[in-house]
Amino acid sequence: MIEREKYLRQLVKAKNNGFPKVITGIRRCGKSFLLKEIYREYLLSENIPENHIITIDLDEDKNAPYRDPISLGEYVRSICTEKEIYYVFLDEIQKVYSIINPNITDGKHIPASANDSDIISFVDVVLGLSREKNIDLYVTGSNSKMLSSDIITEFRDKATNIHLAPLSFDEFYNYTGGYETEALYTYMQYGGMPLAVLKDDEEKKEYLKGLFETTYFRDIVERNHLRRGEELDELCNIISVSTGELLNSERISNTFRSVRKSKIDKQTVENYVGYFIDAFLLREARRYDIKGRKEIGALRKYYFTDTGLRNSRLNFAFPDEGQMIENIVFNELCYNGYSVNVGSFDSVEKDKNGKSVRKTNEVDFYAQKGIRAYYIQVTADMSDENTRKREIRPYTLLNDQIQKIIVVNRPIKESRDEKGFTIIGVTDFLLRFIK
Fold it and tell me: pTM of the full predicted structure?
């Protein structure tokens, strides 16, 4: 079994807290497995009676009557009859449709339309059930409604959100074992979607490509009522190629024009990128003025939630090693609870004519967690002198006490150079340093 210890701890911590636990995340990242296998096993180990763990799979035909929100609420209450706590798992909650309030339809259960205001939805039944003293409620879902990052807004401050990502490299390596460097290369290529991990290489490719084309795009198109998906598809390819580059809507629009020989306005670009972020396919890293201590400008870096999904957009052809390592470092920092920005600062230097000029310097990441803070540069190799100078140059201009780290895609042990900068191999950094 692939262990998801981080998320199990979150579920255990939230157990019996009086709020529904809403498990969100990209489709196929293991939400249902976490709940119905890993967490269920934990509850049984805590001597919770098996008949007090209730699972209702709302995508099964036998449970179709409970897709009516009122019928679902009545059914759950009818089987939770004892005073002791029942742990109720509602899987595929998006199958519950909205109805017009029966109080204004003579008691009839009539499906609601988009224009109806007085409705009862799955949000109402989830909140209602969670207020029962003998019910601890957990819900998951797999379509665009539940995948959206704004789902918790529906519940406001009345739910506990547990956001699940694909397997981190730490989780992946704990499952696969072997040589760390080989495991990282496999992870770099195919990512950490749980079902992909269990397949051979060719099956991984077909699975990931199919997942993107038939599932994620469909969710985004349906949720946002898009009539054409070609522009969305091309935009995704552009971001795939440009992973880890500083972008804004104007740059992406210009690239789109040069690639497709057609126009796409900046607002449409911003909307489409927002759809990808909203569906948890992409994360963004904003620029942060290291010296001014504030976020700046419209430029962003975009990283894929899963590198295998990113590579599937490019048909697994010649993935850029530097881009992928940077993507993995970013994801692992987020997984370990760091807030991550792109570091930026200006310096005044002399040009070849002795004239003072202002230059903008970038650091790949500025990561913070509690009292811990790091500047992080990510590079494929440090053996070339020009590469070394380029990577350490921003550090030599920064006169502060924040630890400065260079992560190298080589199996080297942690060391310090003559300037006190930390140099560390990527697997050592991912598996040990940032814990």
Answer: 0.91
